[in-house]
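Interim report, section 4.2 (structural modelling).
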Amino acid sequence: MKRRSLLLWAGLSPVLAPLIAREARAFGQEGAFHPRLMLTGAQKVDAARRSAPSRWSWEVIRRTSSPARLVVDQIMTDSSDVLHEPFLVWVGDGNIPALTPPELRRLRQYFELGGLLYVDDSNPKEGSFGRAARREIQRVLPEASIVQLDSRHVLFKSYYLLDGPAGRVTGPSHLDAIIRGRDAQVLFASHDLLGALARDDSGTWTFDIEGGASEREMALRFAVNIAMYSLCSDYKDDQVHAQELMRRRGRRQQ
Amino acid sequence: MNARSIAFSDDMVGLPLWLTLALFALSLLLLLIEMQQKERGGVGILLSGTAACIICALAVLRPVIVEAKTSSVGPRVVVLVDQSRRMLLGASSSTRYDRALQAARSVGAHYKDGRLSVFGFAQSELVSLNPNSPPSAALLDSSSDLVTAFNRGVREAGERPDAVLVISDGRLARPEDEVSDDTLKEAFAGVPIHTVSVLRDAPPDASIRHVRAVGAAVAHQPLSLTIDVGCQGLKCNDIPVVVRELRDSVAPAELARGKVSVEGDLGSVSLEITLDRAGARVVQVAIESPQGDTVPENDSRYLTFEVSRDRVRLLHLAGRPTQDVRELRMWLERDQSVDVVAFFILRGDGDNPNAGESDLSLIRFPVEELFTQHLPSFDAIILQDIDAIRYKLAQYLPALAQYVKTGGGLIMVGGPSSFAGGSYAGTALDEIFPVEQPRGAPAFDGSEFVPVYTPAGQGAAVTRSLRELLNGQLPSLAGANFLGAPRPGAIVLWEHPKIRVGADPMPVLALGEAGDGRSIALAADSTFRLAFGDLAASVAGRSYGALWDGLLGWLMRDPRYEAARVELAQECIAGVPAQLRVTRLPGMTGKIAVELRKLSEQQTQSKSFNGGKDGESTSDIDLGALEVGGYTARVKIGDGPPTRHDFGCEKGGEAWSDSRPNPKLLERIAHISGGKAVNWDEPNELPPVEMTQIVAERHTSPILPPWGWSVSAALLLGAHWLARRYGGLA
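Predicted structure of the assembly:
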């Protein structure tokens, strides 16, 4: 099966169900934020984090004007579905086998079209998925080099003003990334963002967060920022925003 | 007439002749020297010696009697009549040209025995002129170049004329007034030039002599205009001058205003103007006519500026961030020729960011500033899925409509909050959009569809790149806004395969013109599928750029996306038939239809013209004689979108900018070339030119046969020898 569309009910309150059903077919939803999960080889989505993408979309809908897809697709990397939208999430918690030639080819096509891949290491303390993902992405984009994005990058002001990435795990204060021109192609996070977003069937958070509720809020905000960055690119780097954002940054630091 | 004369033998010319004469002279000299040694009979020696020398010389030269039949021919006189349009300026009760023609006729009578060749001269070619049947004003040119005319009529002609006659007012483009005498001598050497001045005194007139722009006209960038104003015979102190841009269906925009201080007979002022729209723009420069101005037509100039664009300044407003917004944003950002100012609504009224303002990067949407202060600074506006009422655009829609009418561009991209869904139906934008907006629910249809190219879409330059890239295919789109029928003059490029408006398919992508501006309606919100998807991947996503390059290029009047290149075949002069030259771009087929309208605040009646044939790359379309003013021509080829060209039409144009005659220059030319300067009513003062004798038949007969000269010479030499012996000479 190349494409598996799953309605990820887990973690969503029953109240949302009618909304999901209504939104999924409406005009204007095709371009909505859609954190599609990319699967490689025999990889499967961790059951505990399966609800996270829908929660991500839900937070985007609740907090921003952007539409988002609550019904999130899982895409096999070698499938042409990879090429249909510009955002993919690759999540894992351990080492992964090398990407097959069709997967490599498809990802190269995806990046050629301008797609953005968010790599989320569910077990950043051990870090084997992060290392494996970097290794494989280097095979996809051999010319590209990985750079660090600190809090000055537009990703950290695309909606909220953030000091750095956040997730279930505190992690480093920067993101690793591959940049082409002005736009990021790949974001490597070592904070288990999906872990911070995941809820169980009863609607409670699946994982505890290092740093408590305020850190979870930061993780939600970081997730919204990634969504906004994927939809608006470097919009918040525009000159019209510069003065005001600088003023607010200054005020926050005081 | 018969003439009889004596000449030497035909073979005795040049050196033999001179050698013979030298020997003859030497012989006489030696004879005189020898005479000092004589003893007697000096007279006989001298006479016989002289006679012998003469006869010997004649024996060599062999004189003949020449009988010739001759005729006298009138002198060749070349008459050059100034045919600049300036000659149509008044001179008493007639025009300068009338006077020139009258002078040419009088000259003909004056040189009735002469052979007159009368030519009209202006900028380049000499044209044969019959003073009794002059050409229409259409043949008159904007300036007159006497130097070129002289070279063509005198130096390059077969028979050199005996005299040249120039009839003009002296306000020549060449030679210029300040030219040195040496230059004049060099230019007019060889033939006497007589000049006839048609006017000596300048008419009371204030005029715009020159309008000079420093540098090229670039949209949004200040352009300095230097305006020279001349005034003679009137009280001119501070003359008000105003610069306006003429626009279609809206009031002219005043670009600058100032005063010219005239000192002597000339004043100058520099005014800075800014033209915001690219393409051909008609600018009127006008002075306030002083009282008593006899040539009010040259108080106003209509100049066409070809305004180029450095960068396209674009305002992109989106009601919510989506993948479609992302793709458009990224494409605009990548284009180095586009300067984007973007405002995306990231948070709506019902959204709860769960944070205070200081934790958010959101700023207020400055709708008032954008639509009241900054609107004219943008070349185009993109409205993408933004609700007019919710985001307070509704009150500025009349200003936005006016912005388009005055030359701005507008694209509305589809989405739930676009067109009727965004409360734009029934607003001022109704008359701007190329399509009608049906009111009432539903505002959109959510079903997938593959848009279909219309015949216009299949032929339009705006979609050529996309068609070629995808071989005419288009991706499936996720729903569409409901649009109504296309407005008159609009061009539909894509239509819906199923939804219909009346009997016709619903437009999905349509282009239209409104006043000076252009607008595009795109009823879909998923053109990002030209960047992402199987079809897009087959061309590495370039199809998205191909669509938007075309749309924005057409909106900004980029010549690459026009159906044709349009220009005037020649300067447009009021009252003279004008022609529009239309050059088709590759692939554009069909008949040419031209709609011509005067640039005016009022909706003026347009005139239609047709022409051109398939396979003919360039066609001249006759527009007939036009009045003074600015015009806009919309040229449509086949079903394609129209190409617009604006131009000005003037009464006299550059030729009338300086009404002063310059008789002094004519006098200088006459003086330096050895001719005479007279006034137009004094042709009898012109000097006569001598008749030329032409030999028609010639007979020669020898006075003596050669043996007769030889015998005579021998006898005389013998007699001289005897005389010398008698006188004691050896």
